């Protein structure tokens, strides 16, 4: 029976090693950097979201699952308000909700704050939404300016979520020009647009507004889709409000790519493009990186995003991938790599840093396999957000846990462990049978 205890002990060690490996892999993306984060905000401001709702006459149309557009919007807003995180400062602005007359000049001034941006009394907010009735015109440009004033200025990104069923009927000001104007002010304002109607003019205008501010556009077909999307945008403001992404521009070659330090960065990538960034990694450091690409327009199904870490000469060090099928509007991938992993990669080209410690230039390559559907504009590129972190390298690379984590080695170890366990238990069974026969 002594022999029978040893395999159990070995199996216990194996499971413990696997647990350590799993914990190490799950703990990686993204972690807080040891160095100051690029573009880090003070972190004292609460996330702020202003929802701009179209209540013009066309919202009476009953073409969303047999319900009127306004009824769908109201029900979705009720669910969004119920799910609001406690720290979020949320407000609602309307357009076309108050003036019922035929004077266009007066109707095109009709935008009003329904519920001020701040800590939300959910009962009051839902009561205000319930009073809305489709009424007037569609002054989107004026409403966007009003929403920017509602949110105020600050160091962190604030979001405007525009829900409408048509293009602006009151220009000037043209809403695309207003969006560009707000972006040029550098006030960290992102406008996400959701369209309840599906004509080309409305789609192009809402896409233009979103593109100008780094936001997303969604073509809404169902109430569930509207609810889920607005909740996601509110959650996104909570996830990113402490750090405002720094704008950068990747290149097609590592030698000309921008050098990134730990932080959060934003860029745009064309369909089926590769964009490259450089990260210096010192000896004893571990690079942790993740990328999220927002699919903000109609694309062909079955697509993917690839994040690679390569040496300066193009040799792959590690990669992370993710795939989508049209049922999500964000595709993400992540990776982690340390200088201890570069054994055998002489092409990693280590160099000396100002501190005297050896330094390796790692090239981060973001690639996508997305293709636009017919009639969809390819410009500008898809918004992406890249997170870079440098932490102290884990001691795991030199230990058994990292060895077990190497795919084929793990398979070999598990196979051998299974064979050994089978042999031992077979031997024990034969021994018991022999003892039983003797007795």
| SSE string, helices as H and strands as E | HEHEHEHHEHEHEHEEEEEEEEEEHH
**How would you state the average pLDDT, rounded?**
79
Estimated structural class: alpha/beta
Strand content: 25-35%
Please tell me how large the radius of gyration is.
28 Å
Strand order of the largest sheet: 3-2-1-4-5-6
- Give the end-to-end Cα distance, rounded to a whole number of Å: 18 Å
- Can you summarize the main beta sheet? 6 strands, mixed
Put simply, the count of helices is 10
List the uncertain runs.
1-43, 343-348, 396-406
**Fraction of residues in H or I helices:** 25-40%
DSSP strand count? 16
Global outline: globular
Structure overview:
Helices cover about 35% and strands about 25% of the residues. The strands form three sheets. A six-stranded mixed β-sheet has the order 3-2-1-4-5-6, with helices on both faces. Helix 2 runs parallel beside helix 8 and helix 6 (about 175-185) packs parallel to helix 7. The model is unreliable at about 1-45, about 345-350 and about 395-405 (pLDDT under 50). It is of the alpha/beta class and about 450 residues long. It is globular, with a radius of gyration of 28 Å. The longest helix has about 30 residues, at about 405-439.
């Amino acid at each position: 029976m002594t022999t029978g205890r040893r395999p159990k002990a070995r199996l216990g060690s194996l499971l413990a090693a696997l647990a350590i490996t799993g914990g190490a892999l799950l703990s990686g993306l993204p972690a807080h950097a040891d160095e100051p984060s690029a573009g880090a905000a003070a972190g004292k401001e609460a996330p702020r979201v202003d929802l701009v709702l179209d209540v013009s006459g066309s919202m009476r149309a009953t073409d969303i699952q047999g319900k009127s557009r306004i009824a769908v919007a109201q029900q979705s807003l009720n669910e969004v308000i119920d799910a609001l995180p406690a720290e979020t400062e949320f407000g609602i602005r309307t357009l076309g909700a108050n003036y019922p007359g035929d004077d266009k000049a007066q109707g095109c001034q009709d935008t009003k704050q329904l519920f001020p941006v701040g800590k939300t009394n959910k009962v009051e907010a839902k009561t205000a939404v319930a009073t809305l009735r489709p009424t007037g015109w569609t002054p989107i440009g004026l409403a966007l300016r009003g929403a920017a004033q509602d949110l105020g200025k600050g160091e962190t990104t604030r979001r405007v979520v525009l829900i409408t069923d048509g293009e602006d009927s009151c220009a000037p000001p043209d809403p695309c020009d207003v969006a560009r104007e707000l972006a040029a002010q550098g006030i960290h304002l992102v406008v996400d647009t959701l369209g309840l109607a599906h004509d080309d003019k409305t789609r192009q205008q809402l896409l233009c507004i979103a593109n100008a501010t780094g936001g997303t556009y969604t073509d809404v077909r169902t109430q569930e889709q509207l609810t889920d999307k607005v909740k996601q945008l509110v959650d996104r403001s909570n996830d990113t409000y402490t750090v405002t992404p720094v704008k950068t521009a990747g290149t097609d070659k590592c030698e000309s790519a921008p050098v990134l330090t730990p932080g959060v960065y934003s860029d745009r990538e064309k369909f089926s493009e590769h964009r490259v960034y450089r990260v210096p990694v010192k000896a004893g450091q571990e690079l942790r990186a993740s990328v999220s690409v927002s699919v903000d327009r109609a694309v062909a199904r079955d697509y993917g995003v690839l994040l690679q870490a390569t040496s300066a000469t193009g040799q792959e060090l590690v990669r992370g991938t993710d795939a989508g099928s049209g049922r999500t509007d964000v595709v993400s991938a992540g990776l982690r790599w340390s200088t201890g992993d570069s054994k055998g990669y002489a092409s990693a080209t280590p160099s000396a840093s100002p501190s005297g410690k050896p330094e390796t230039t790692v090239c981060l390559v973001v690639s996508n396999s997305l293709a636009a559907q017919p009639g969809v504009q390819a410009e500008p590129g898809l918004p992406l957000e890249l997170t870079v972190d440098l932490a102290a390298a884990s001691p795991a690379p030199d230990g058994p846990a990292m060895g077990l984590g190497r795919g084929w080695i793990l398979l070999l170890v598990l196979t051998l462990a299974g064979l050994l366990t089978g042999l031992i238990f077979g031997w024990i069974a034969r021994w018991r049978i022999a003892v039983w026969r003797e007795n």
